[in-house]
Amino acid sequence: MNDRSHILAAVQVMLDRAVPDTGLCAVLVVRLKGMRELQLRFGYGFGSDIMLAARDRIVEAVRHVDKVFVAGDDSVVIVLPAIRNRTHAMLAATRIVGAFDSPLPHPERPWHGRIAIGVAMHPDHGTTAEWLYRRAEMAHDDAVRLAEPFAIYEPDVTPVDILYGELREDIEGNRLHVAFQPLRDLRSGEMVRVESLARWSTPMHGDVAPADFIPFAERSDLIVPLTRWSINASLRHVASLHRGHCPLDVAINLSPRVFVEHGFAEQILGALEIWGVPASSAILEVTETALLTDLDVSVRGLRRLRDCGVRVAIDDFGTGYASFAYLRHFPATELKIDRSFVSAMTSDRRTEQLVRAMVEVAHRLGMEAVAEGVENEETLLRLVEMDCDVVQGYHIGRPVPAEAFVAERLAAASLV
Fold it and tell me: Which of 3, 143, 236, 362 has minimal Cβ neighbours within 10 Å of its Cβ?
């Protein structure tokens, strides 16, 4: 049974029966990655067979007292009653992840897939089935964002109701700000572009870290308007540089959620036209998560943008699950090597070789290699030796408010 209301009712019954002396309860949301693409390619019957096989695999991995529900085309909900602590919940998640190390059987073709798990604890994270389900979903999103196989729910620092209302109002009122971080071309030594970064400050909470409000927006319905605001605010500042005869390219982060928006490619092209910024001056940064969320839709929209001259970068490369098959089909012009690899390569020979291999892969596929997280001269020199194309990081330049950045560039241009 995969009707959510029936599942929540069944989970609530289990929670109501829980006795404090017997321990805690945990609710886990397990999502199979790439199931929508699988169904579109091989049929919904094939997808249903895989989900049933996944359920059977999970049942084998958990205890006989645990309950497993198929919750949709790609999701399974698990209730773990009578566990001692959150560590036991994480051990259960580890067992479930390990159960998918071998492919799921199918008469036509075995499924080699990956899963991501979110965990919420009763009563620490909620006392109702709906609250626990929602918070397990939030933890799942954190696991995907961090490229981890599972994550446990962590409460937001600021109250959700206040944060949501304030963020929505400030997006609608254009009260967020843009910061620009420079990127340097390693061959010319020149600053060739900036990455646009959203910044938010409120009277009640002060400066809210991007690591807090952007994941929050991802979990809610605010990420699409936030992305739309970011595109227009970034292009407005870049347009000032173009009018001042000191043009720079701008890289803008796109959430995977925008790909389900009807006509998102046309919206971006329309914004470029409104602000008078050439399409070739825009780089859209897309995480590997977008490749797995809905490959067909992502490829169609980004190919439309590529055909019009917009460049596309795969962001945080190496931390997700993108394969060479995805790289072959995805219309990317740049590969951004994640900072976790770049920052570690001076102290770990194996990591250095991985970075070198990523640079070579980018070049062999006709893409630029961009290294983020360059924090010192030694790292920079090694990237030069690897023939990396573009770099960014605190050693290159820290993010600065876009208004100040543009004013300084225009003032410098007027002196030439």
Answer: 3
Q: Could you list the mean pLDDT of each consecutive 10-residue stretch along the chain, which spans 416 residues? A: 76 81 86 82 86 93 94 91 87 92 84 89 89 91 82 66 76 95 96 95 82 78 90 97 93 82 89 96 81 66 92 80 64 90 91 95 94 95 97 96 95 78
Evaluate whether 111 touches 50 at the Cβ level (below 8 Å): yes
**Phi–psi pair at 376, nearest 5 degrees:** -155, 170
The whole-angstrom separation of Cα 58 and Cα 48 is 15
The H or E element spanning position 307 is helix 295-307
CA–CA separation, 371 and 317 (whole Å): 10
Q: What is the pLDDT of residue 300?
A: 83
> Coil, strand or helix: which one is 402?
helix
Residues 337 and 367 sit within 8 Å (Cβ to Cβ): no
Helix (H, G, I), strand (E, B) or coil at 310: coil
Return the structure tokens found at 251: 């890289």
Its pTM stands at 0.65
> Closest Cα to residue 305, out of 272, 342, 336?
272
What residues are paired with 283 via a beta bridge? 251, 311
Please check whether residue 182 is in contact with residue 393, taking contact to mean a CB–CB distance below 8 angstroms.
no
One-letter amino acid of 335: L
Gap between the Cα atoms of 350 and 162, Å rounded? 46
Residue keyed to tokens 């009763």? 122
Q: Which domains are assigned to the chain?
A: 4-152 (3.30.70.270), 161-415 (3.20.20.450)
Residue 220 bridge partners (DSSP): none
pLDDT at 34: 80
Residue 178 near residue 233, CB atoms below 8 Å: yes
| Closest listed residue to residue 318, CA positions, set 335, 299, 334, 293 | 335
- Which position has the token pair 């990420």? 223
